[in-house]
Amino acid sequence: EHIMAIRNKNINPMTSKITYYKKPVFIHQGHMQWLWDMDGRRYLDLFAGVATVAVGHCHPKVTAAVEKQLKKLWHTTNIYVNAPLHEYCEKLASHLPDPLKVIYLTNSGSEANDLAMLMARIHTGNYDIITFRGSYHGGSQQTMGLTSQSSYKYPIATSSGCTHTMCPDVFRGPWGGSHCRDSPVQTIRQCSCVQGQCMANEHYIGQLKETFAASVPSRVAGFFGEPIQGMGGAVQYPKNYFKEAYKLVREKGGVCIADEVQTGFGRTGTHFWGFQGYGVLPDIVTMAKGIGNGFPMAAVVTTPEIAASFAKAYHFNTFGGNSVACAVGSAVLNAIREDGLQQNCHHVGTYLMTELAKLRDKHEIIGDVRGKGLQIGVEMVKDKASREPLGPEAMMEIFEDVKDMGVLIGKGGLYGQTFRIQPPMCITTADVDFFLAVFDKAIH
Ligand code: PMP
């Protein structure tokens, strides 16, 4: 009661609004994929603090690296040469393909996207930015313009120059295209592929062309895309969509920005970055969340050419490149490699998707199972024929039951109709079996 009184009185009211459960969970402690509440109840964490705790809660090696750095040096700003900053930037750059080698360290995903937006405008001399419907790119004044989900926006604060093109959502969008997903499971929707060419892709690219014609007639500064939409509910795109979209954007004078805030650091399993799954090379990559395993840090990585355009005025960030953050970042990259977490995302994620597809075939209210690696969405519907989104009360009931049986999952999608599974990347197939039994029971 005392804690809830503080929450209601002293913490910004939106926090209470987004408290997930009717009976809130008081998290007290964590270890790897497990969390414990104040009463000592254990939960399997399949949401990782919104896809953030990449290598596991209080991962022993990351914790040890932080402890070591905390005793040595906390902060100098990056105007001084210091080892953690340089070690980290060299290590992070080694995870990115050429020519993406120039790093700007920031503190949050919003800040990273804000900076990427500015870079795109300065480099191209153009102003207009295109993103997808259903996207989420941040909550700062500028990034609110990029974000399309209206529940996260204040129109008065939204920056101008951002247009939202139709999201190639093959389940909820009008054009189907299940075969086009690089995914181990099929959707209930029949694909309208013709000789291996997905018509859905053509339709969505047509929409992008229309966006140019209608809203951005001449030149564009940038095109932002999450390789798999996160808050939008694990929405993937037809295989060739990004290749064609990038070409179109570049023809119009713009640069292409991959928002890897949720999909980066091996989460999609087959690749370290989500964009690699589509065979494209962005001009700017933004990253946050998993980069610090819960420590507040983020980054923008770009090419020397774009960095050169962005060097005319001083760009300074007090905490970006903080010594402790850099020590965390290095330890996270080590843990991903040493613990084989990208491979684990592929292995456990494929198993989870395959088993979830069986539950989808069994339950009328599971409409779609999609995603890649451990970036998975389960879209709930009233029935498979209408594909109408399951209502908030039924969603809440399942959600609360799953929690009461010891598993935490997330929610997303335009109508709040998609359960999100984005756990620490260290979960096992035994954890998946536990979750599936709980989920099956909750849906029953
Ligand atoms: N981009 C994406 C894809 C995100 O999911 C988020 C946060 N949910 C952001 C950007 C913004 O990150 P932050 O909350 O760290 O500002």
UniProtKB/TrEMBL annotation:
Its main location: mitochondrion. PROSITE patterns: AA_TRANSFER_CLASS_3. Its EC number is 2.6.1.18, 2.6.1.40, 2.6.1.44. GO terms for molecular function: (R)-3-amino-2-methylpropionate-pyruvate transaminase activity; alanine-glyoxylate transaminase activity; beta-alanine:pyruvate transaminase activity; pyridoxal phosphate binding. It is found in: Mitochondrion. It catalyses: N(omega),N('omega)-dimethyl-L-arginine + glyoxylate = 5-(3,3'-dimethylguanidino)-2-oxopentanoate + glycine; 2-oxopentanoate + N(omega),N(omega)-dimethyl-L-arginine = 5-(3,3-dimethylguanidino)-2-oxopentanoate + L-2-aminopentanoate; 2-oxobutanoate + L-alanine = (2S)-2-aminobutanoate + pyruvate; N(omega),N(omega)-dimethyl-L-arginine + pyruvate = 5-(3,3-dimethylguanidino)-2-oxopentanoate + L-alanine. Transmembrane segments: none annotated. Keywords: Aminotransferase, Mitochondrion, Pyridoxal phosphate, Transferase, Transit peptide. The keyword Transit peptide applies. It comes from the Eukaryota. SUPFAM superfamilies: PLP-dependent transferases (SSF53383). GO terms for biological process: glyoxylate catabolic process; L-alanine catabolic process, by transamination. It is an enzyme of class 2 (transferase). Its cofactor is pyridoxal 5'-phosphate. One of its GO terms (cellular component) is mitochondrion. InterPro entries: Aminotrans_3 (IPR005814), Aminotrans_3_PPA_site (IPR049704), PyrdxlP-dep_Trfase (IPR015424), PyrdxlP-dep_Trfase_major (IPR015421), PyrdxlP-dep_Trfase_small (IPR015422). Homotetramer. Belongs to the class-III pyridoxal-phosphate-dependent aminotransferase family. Multifunctional aminotransferase with a broad substrate specificity. Catalyzes the conversion of glyoxylate to glycine using alanine as the amino donor. Catalyzes metabolism of not L- but the D-isomer of D-beta-aminoisobutyric acid to generate 2-methyl-3-oxopropanoate and alanine. Catalyzes the transfer of the amino group from beta-alanine to pyruvate to yield L-alanine and 3-oxopropanoate. Can metabolize NG-monomethyl-L-arginine (NMMA), asymmetric NG,NG-dimethyl-L-arginine (ADMA) and symmetric NG,N'G-dimethyl-L-arginine (SDMA). This is Alanine--glyoxylate aminotransferase 2, mitochondrial. It comes from Acanthochromis polyacanthus.
